[in-house]
Amino acid sequence: MATRALIGARSRATFRLPASRFLSIGPISRFASTLVIAEHEGGSIKAPSLSAVEAAKSLDKDNSISMLLAGSGPSLQEAAAYAASCHPSVSKVLVADSDRFMHPLAEPWARLIQLVQQRENFSHIVAASGSFGKNILPRAAALLDVSPVTDVIEISESTKFVRPIYAGNALCTVRYTGAHPCMLTIRSTSFQAQPDSTDSKAHKAPISQVDLSTFEEDTIGKSQYVKLTSQESERPDLGNARIVVTGGRGLKSAENFKMLEKLAEKLGAAVGATRAAVDAGFVPNDLQVGQTGKIVAPELYLAFGVSGAIQHLAGMRDSKVIVAVNKDADAPIFQVADYGLVGDLFEVIPELLEKLPEKN
Ligand SMILES: Cc1cc2nc3c(=O)[nH]c(=O)nc-3n(C[C@H](O)[C@H](O)[C@H](O)COP(=O)(O)OP(=O)(O)OC[C@H]3O[C@@H](n4cnc5c(N)ncnc54)[C@H](O)[C@@H]3O)c2cc1C
Where along this sequence does the record place binding of FAD (predicted)? Predict the structure, then answer.
């Protein structure tokens, strides 16, 4: 192997700013009753929505948590049955069954949230901060005339939240003093659902159908569902993977990314990429990690040929262990890495592939 140096100086300091007022219209006064907007697939609730329930739990110890599911067909009913027993803190499952909600378009979903809120008057509405929640929640907030608090990573009181600002370089504490409902998107990596909280045997919440007879179509909605393009892969989902193997511009081509895919297969890991790698067309943009991509916090994050720009760090700096391989000893990624290897990735990856056993 060529000469390499191991360096490992981790400094992931973030500044904490004092609490600031987010809005000042009038305080939320009563106990929390929270609506969690849930995303479902294949008859079960997606993991980030379970994290949203976990976050809702921290709003108030007496919080009553309802989950809203929408869609149509047998998979919706299956998901509703799953939702009823997916988490002991869910006290009710609301189901909106209509072809309008077949696809996650913001317009009909936002109208649905407005309708449900007008009837149930929840104190809080929470969704995970993925593309689903980020698409729907702000529009619903506009219809309800409130300002959402986004990307919450910590809840200390029912109206006091911590969220990252300046691409994750500072943490800001905000107090929501607006009108009902207080609407939040939460980072699922900060509210991991506990394994024992998904015990399906002990708990069954009641399921009720949302009456859609007064549902108003959004007449100004301009988006249209065209098609879903998704990659068939046995690798874990990037957002929830325990190990993430990320490649940057240093990989140089789409062809070279295949090495990284092999490594991910051996490690049972998800593949991630920097924006530069995505922009260069090496991989599709759903693999992008960072400020404008996915936020991940796996147990192990391996970065190959990644410089460590702040916009990339914003998406992975909370990973438990960070390993970086870069030929430039001054690359900023080494400032957040627990283990750093100064070396050529075109030597390191083949050597790793050779030494790691095949996955059973
Ligand atoms: C508003 C905004 C939002 C952004 N959002 C994101 C985001 O979400 N995610 C994101 O990633 N970026 C984002 N960016 C872009 C970001 O600023 C950087 O440009 C990008 O992260 C750089 O990607 P990179 O590290 O792959 O490329 P580079 O910065 O070009 O780094 C490539 C690295 O590879 C190393 N290298 C080269 N060859 C080898 C080799 N053979 N072996 C080992 N190492 C090698 C080099 O030393 C270098 O450090 C955003 C930028 C802006 C302005």
Answer: 249, 274-275, 288-292, 305-312, 326
Residue whose C-alpha is closest to residue 59's, from 179, 240, 186: 186
For the chain, what is the total number of helices (H) and then of strands (E)?
Answer: 9, 19
Using CA atoms, how far apart are residues 180 and 28, in angstroms rounded to an integer?
Answer: 7
Report the C-alpha gap between 79 and 345 in whole angstroms: 43
Whether ipTM > 0.95 holds is yes
- Do residues 282 and 303 make contact, with C-beta atoms less than 8 angstroms apart? no
**Residue 254: HSE in the Cβ half-sphere, 13 Å Cα cutoff:** 9
Angstrom distance (rounded) from CA 340 to CA 324: 5
Residues lining ligand 1, CB < 6 A? 248-250, 274-277, 288-293, 305-307, 309, 311-312, 315, 325-328, 331, 344-346
Task: Return the half-sphere exposure (C-beta side, CA atoms, 13 A cut-off) of residue 166.
Answer: 8
- Rounded distance between C-alpha atoms, residue 220 and residue 106, angstroms: 12
Atom of ligand 1 nearest to the CA of 345: 42
* Residue whose tokens read 């549902």: 215
- Distance in angstroms (rounded) separating the CA atoms of residues 271 and 287: 7
- 81: how many CB neighbours lie within 10 A of its CB? 16
Predicted confidence (pLDDT) per residue in 10-66, tens digit: 556 566 665 554 443 344 545 689 999 999 999 999 999 999 999 999 998 888 999
State pTM to two decimals: 0.82
- Return d(Cα 138, Cα 150) in angstroms, integer: 9
Return the HEC string of 221-277: CCCCCCCCCCCCCCCCCCCCCCEEEEECHHHCCHHHHHHHHHHHHHHCCEEEECHHH
